[in-house]
Amino acid sequence: MEFSKLAAPTLRELFVKQLESLILSGKLPIGSQLPSERELATRMQVSRAVVNAGINEVASKGFIEIHPRVGAFVADYRRNGTFETLLSIMEYNGGRLRRDEVRSILEIKMELDKLAAKLAIQKATKEDIDLLNSRLQDLAAVQTPEESAVAAFNFYHELALISGNLLLPLFYCSFKVPIFSLWERFTIKNGLGSLAESSGQLLRMTEARDVEGAVKSIEEL
After folding, report:
1. Cα–Cα distance, 198 to 217 (Å, whole number)
2. Whole-number Å distance between alpha carbons of 5 and 209
3. What radius of gyration do the chain's Cα atoms show?
4. Of 9-18, 125-134, 185-194, which one has max mean pLDDT?
5. Spatial distance between the Cα atoms of 123 and 41, rounded to a whole number of angstroms
6. How many alpha carbons lie under 13 Å from residue 211 in its C-beta half-sphere?
7. What is the SS3 string spanning 182-210?
8. Neighbours of 2 (CB within 10 A)
């Protein structure tokens, strides 16, 4: 078993985590005003620099709105959040996604996969198909659910790159963390070869320039 390096969190990271937890738990309700930076620094026994940097980070995730010369207020993060907001929610929930979040992610991913496949089918060269085959072989050789998630990401990310759409690969990277979690769960439930089988079907449809077949295989998955 491989053990990863341990690293102690910084004071800013601890501040951000505590503030997000207070918001997500409802202890700091939407619309409520945060104490001043000076007061927060005193209460939490950290420097104002830590508080300022932490508040700005939490604000960038959509949890807080900062009004100059007025103060910082808890925002409706489901209306104003970014993808970073979802990652914070996942961390707060112990890395797990709720049912409605899972469904929402899969709905978006399915449409992205369809677009990537349609464009790739139009543009894929023999070298592109060979590269997808290489990614598929990596996926077929995995030994753990974690390896399966990484290999599956590499396959679909490659498909997005082949599509020629400049934004699709960026969208895939944005979904990397929650998609890894879902693919691991999928593999645990259906077996190590399950993702390789479904991805292989998509590759065959791509190689055959069969748009309808590719879309069907994505919807079935």
Report:
1. 7
2. 45
3. 21
4. 125-134
5. 56
6. 10
7. HHHHHHHHHCCCHHHHHHHHHHHHHHCCC
8. 3
- Whether 191 shows a pLDDT value over 80: the answer reads yes
Distance CA 165, CA 187 (A): 29
Cα–Cα dist 42/45, whole Å: 5
Phi-psi region of 42 (alpha: psi -120 to 50; beta: other; left: phi over 0): alpha
Sign of CA dihedral 37, 38, 44, 49: positive
Residues composing the chain: 221
pLDDT tens digits along 144-171? 999 999 999 999 999 999 999 999 998 8
Q: What pLDDT, on the 0 to 100 scale, is given for residue 134?
A: 95
Q: Name the band, by pLDDT with cuts 50, 70 and 90, for residue 95.
A: low
- Supply 78's token pair: 């489901």
CA dist 92 and 195 (Å) reads: 28
Environment class of 79 (CB within 10 Å of its CB; exposed 0-12, middle 13-18, buried 19+): exposed
Per-residue pLDDT tens for 111-137? Answer: 999 999 999 999 999 999 999 999 999
What is the SS3 assignment for 87? helix
Distance CA(117)–CA(164), nearest Å, equals 11
CA distance 124 to 130: 10
Q: At what angle do helices 194-207 and 126-140 cross, to 10 degrees?
A: 170
pLDDT at 173: 85
Tokens 């738990």 appear where? Answer: 25
Instruction: Specify the DSSP element, H or E, that contains 20.
Output: helix 11-24
